[in-house]
Queue: 4 jobs
Job 1
Amino acid sequence: MNVKYIVYGKDYDIIKKAHIVIEDGIVKEISNGWINNGMNFKNAIAIPGIFNAHIHLLDAIVPEACVGYDLPGYVGSKGLKLSLIRLYSRNHDFYEYFISRELMYYSGLGDFLEIYELCEPMKIIANKYGIRYLPLSRPHRYDNEWEYLDVARKCGGIGISNPTRVPPWTLNVLARISRRTIVAAHIGETKKMWKTGALEYLVYNGVSLKHVVHGVYMDPWEYELLVEHDIVLVACPSSNLWFLGKLPDIYRAWTKNVDLAVGTDNTGCFKPDIWREVNMIYSLLVSNDPHIRSKDVLVKITRSSIKAIGINDLPWFIEEGYKANIYLIDADRIMLDRSWDIIGSIMKRASIDHHIARIIGSRMIYLR
């Protein structure tokens, strides 16, 4: 496969005018120069596949229903979103259409589903398009211990939208589940959630969290708690800006060495374009420290995005001897030939609409 650029190795070095040889899903050779019998993507840059670590798929069926509503009015337990999902969510044909048009740019997705009975149907659809899909959900009643077990059995794990609704007597069951499957939670999305101590409530009661989402409101010591317990923070800045007019303290998370991934949150409110979120994260970081290296930012986000949804067999880099996890992006559309900082240009200018194809193992999925 011939490409214009490759983001190579764990240091994300740039190789120009190069080729990649993949055999049985493993990268066998990367070298300068184009080969005669290779597939030609001579306008593309090959980058490691970054995952969208947090979406809510089901509200995509009613776009922009969030307009005119605050956060509790739209996503709360009595909010509009849940009513719309209950009304329309059995329309599996729509979700297949949406996944095939808006989400197949990604090799990996983490999804918080409001109705856990839909985990298996959505997973079947996502697998059809070569997406490593992690459906997380929650019980219909947070006080029903047996329902937690049913969710864990039918889904990829537990995704708790509001930990303050989890009663103390269910925490033992949740802790046991977290030792054998993924448990994730929203934390610090609102002041109320922060003041009631959602993060420490779960962690100090033995719940092993794979990742937490939002973290708009956090105490300084909570970042250290994330590092201590090896928990990824998934930021969704577009969502936070829309609903709260406030952003997470990304720079503090960076300086505390928190694993940092990104998500696009509610698909009914926001275009699921991971590069919008990456651009905002990068902007927040360099506004605090203009000397932060672009490659360090992309390395952390890519590595953490894979870690957040527990995909252990795919690397966050492109290198010989490792399974292929590659996105091909149109280098000409983001003017990489003239760029002083190619990684910076990807984070600032790329869009999922610039994706040409992606490779996961031995499977190539064309996106145009």
Job 2
Amino acid sequence: MLPTYRPNKRRRKKSIGFRARMKTAGGRKVLAARRRKGRWSIIPE
């Protein structure tokens, strides 16, 4: 059986990076919510 999580910097950026979030309405909502909450970082590193 293969592991479910296979770290890959490029894939990670493509799926949860800032630009990926900005592309969709839902992603922009996520950013707005994190800003509203006062998260130290709006995009997890």
Job 3
Amino acid sequence: MVALAVTFGFMTAVGIVCHVDMTVGPLLWLPACLLFFPLWTMLQIVSGRQGDAPRDALDEWEIQQRNSARSIGLTVTQLLTLLPAMYLIFVGALDADHSNVPYAAGLLVVTALMVGGCTPAMILGWTRPDPEPDDLAPDDLAS
């Protein structure tokens, strides 16, 4: 999860670089995505995809955990998306040439949405208890 947070920080930095330099900035987005997708897949596996599992697949305790994590994820999404929106409002109000602003803000919005979308799985993966040794198969204990 730390690697995913670092990737999100890198994506945010790419959005900021795009405000200044449209030659290098967009090229940096590709490595950020190449880092994100495998990490996101691993996170989904670790969390058991509980964050987006259908209600019938979960018991009451798991539903409560999922709903709580989703609520936090929505709050994170709203707050983080507010930042690029304010960036667009304030920078767009200036009278200078802002040809890079829409692209940079778009990357920041996409990053905010990705952070918010991953937040429930990150919370569930972080708070999920480790399996009890008695629950593991004998083959699992040997490795």
Job 4
Amino acid sequence: MAKAGDFVHLHLHSQYSILDGAIKVKELVKKAKEYGMPAVAVTDHGNMYASYELYKTCKEEGIKPIIGQEFYIAKGSRFDKRKGEEGEKGSYHLILIAKNETGLKNLMKLSSIGFLEGFYYKPRIDKDLLRRHS
């Protein structure tokens, strides 16, 4: 099997990204180890559901877990629940990855706020939250 060397996936969807990802976390980590990858990230759409399992499984397999999320960024305020003009995109995507424990706490806070305050079809955050939690 070919070795990946220093290659690491930083934008990867698991089974928790409905319609975008299908791989289960344990299978992902097993494949990453098989390919000789030193680390692997999971950046699911709008949630961090895979984070604990990724961390636990990677530690068991001797691979560095990289925890992140692909956030939905509201065009304006996360509190705005109006539909945009026809053909206008209502939100954008932004991948954020935790650099350290503080970063992980910020990601968890942003993810929670997206569901609690910004949910409009999808859990959204806005630029104001990004400024406060980065």
